[in-house]
Amino acid sequence: MEKKIVYFKNSGAENTDKVIELVKERKEELGIENIVVASVSGLTTVKVLESMPDAKIVSVTHHAGFRGGDELELEREHAQKLEDAGVPIYIGSHSLSGVGRGISNKFGGITPVEIIAGTLRLFSQGVKVCVEISVMAADAGLLPTDKEVIAIGGTAKGVDTAVVLKPAHMGNFFDLKINEIIAMPRP
After folding, report:
1. Within a 10 A sphere around the Cβ of 89, how many other Cβ atoms?
2. Which CATH superfamily includes the segment(s) 4-95+124-183?
3. Cα angle for residues 154, 139, 18 (degrees, 5° grid)
4. pLDDT digits (tens, 9 = 90+) for 12-61
5. Claim: this prediction has a pTM higher than 0.90
């Protein structure tokens, strides 16, 4: 099999529209139904929904207090659009940091989960995010683990990475398989 991978010169939001275009194309080629999207504010997931209203989409944002305080960064306007369309929004701790990062921050050192996250970042921050949100959504029962899905993630704002993968639950993390990289920034 031969398939192209799109590499972006830079990471970040400037790649969002192209990633969505590439995901739509690959979704149709492979007949994939499920898409999981990392979207802090909800805007990127709204864009995916507008481009692929037939997809089973899950939006993943991070927990309250991620940037300090007790606030969520999910914007109410975007959340309402997603809720109205029946798109589930997962709000929770990162599967590849969570309590482990809290332990490292308090006592120093590094946990095995942080080593996994660091290894995935060798490809790109977006690849790490794609794996992470897939595990989170699977653990919440929002994403099947018996078929391929497309995961969309990025670096800071917007998205710059998309992969085809077979998710797994946290308890059997190493059953997760990254089958294709659709797009990612060059590190």
Report:
1. 18
2. Pyruvate kinase, C-terminal domain (3.40.1380.20)
3. 25
4. 999 999 999 999 999 999 999 999 999 988 999 999 999 999 999 999 98
5. yes
